[in-house]
């Protein structure tokens, strides 16, 4: 039995257990993967300040995100096709989040539907919306999320068109997978995955199939995205969607101060500084580099969260110290899901919480709200000297 001590341990098991096509889908960025790599390597450049002889008893990692109490200041980010990393993946991740006390976000491009997750859980979850050309279908998604009592709508703004990931094209990514010879050879070594998959009826994009009218190929994420995502989405449309939803809104995928200002002006409850985990604009700066500027511009008007690159509790502390009120994690929990389902997601959250708690103590702090800029050592040129 492998002893799991860090997120990397889960990643190794994920790679062993999930079909190559789905592990690669998770572990890739667009084009050269520069932004994907820098999301994590930029966290490494920042150091924590060790403090001693400070009472470290009575600590807590608890915080709040848009008014909700959270066991640690992170939420599970929306991730497409989780139900192919492990059978019923979205349901299992939502259950793990509920048990642990952090929010779960369901992607539009999930395998389990809004209704599947609502039926299998009791804590309110968040729904992430990709707006579609078919406005009836978009309206219908919003209505279904409301009927499922979703607590917030997460509108993703950085994917109206898909950044190219070479591996997905080479692997012929589809959900469920097409049974070609290379896929069958790979599946022969992933028997546990196959057995679990045979036991669930949830093997296609259930937010779409049976809900969207007159659609062709729903197996291919790439084909669906290019044919159906709304490339005309602009701030006016975002505003209309926010009004239509009428509840809490999180605007995700913001990496620029001007865009952050627009989002704050519309009254977003939170914005997520994010480059989609390096999956969209390759060559964009890492989220952690962009965070301080965005916090400075809109931090007093809206909650600023960060995702992209978080792989440890120390990373969460670094984001908080640079002004984030909360964070989201993507791959860090997907590795756990692909490795061992619900238990793996719980493991990932446990790892992050333990790392955060102990590192916080070693920095002489007792809770996340005390963790400010003075707890970091940041290289002088970290922000970079860029000319627009
Ligand atoms: C495999 C995968 C699928 C994703 N699918 C979605 C999605 O459907 N909707 C969305 O808004 N973001 C999606 N994202 C982006 C995540 O929500 C999040 O921004 C990103 O994973 C953060 O980076 P990290 O993985 O380094 O933590 C996806 C990310 C990954 C890794």
UniProtKB/TrEMBL annotation:
Annotated Gene Ontology cellular component terms: plasma membrane
Record: residues binding glyoxylate: 25, 165, 276, 279
Keywords: Flavoprotein, FMN, Oxidoreductase
Residues of the active site: 276
Signal peptide positions on this chain: none
Matches recorded under Pfam families: FMN_dh
Chain sites annotated for binding FMN: 78-80, 107, 128, 130, 156, 252, 274, 307-311, 330-331
GO terms assigned for molecular function: FMN binding; oxidoreductase activity, acting on CH-OH group of donors
Sequence ranges assigned to domain FMN hydroxy acid dehydrogenase in this UniProt record: 1-381
Record flagged with keyword Metal-binding: no
SUPFAM superfamilies: FMN-linked oxidoreductases
PROSITE patterns referenced in this protein's UniProt entry, alphabetically: FMN_HYDROXY_ACID_DH_1 (PS00557), FMN_HYDROXY_ACID_DH_2 (PS51349)
Co-factor requirement: FMN
Superkingdom field: Bacteria
Family indicated by similarity: Belongs to the FMN-dependent alpha-hydroxy acid dehydrogenase family.
Identification of the protein by name: L-lactate dehydrogenase (Cytochrome)
Biological source species: Vannielia litorea
Lineage: Bacteria, Pseudomonadati, Pseudomonadota, Alphaproteobacteria, Rhodobacterales
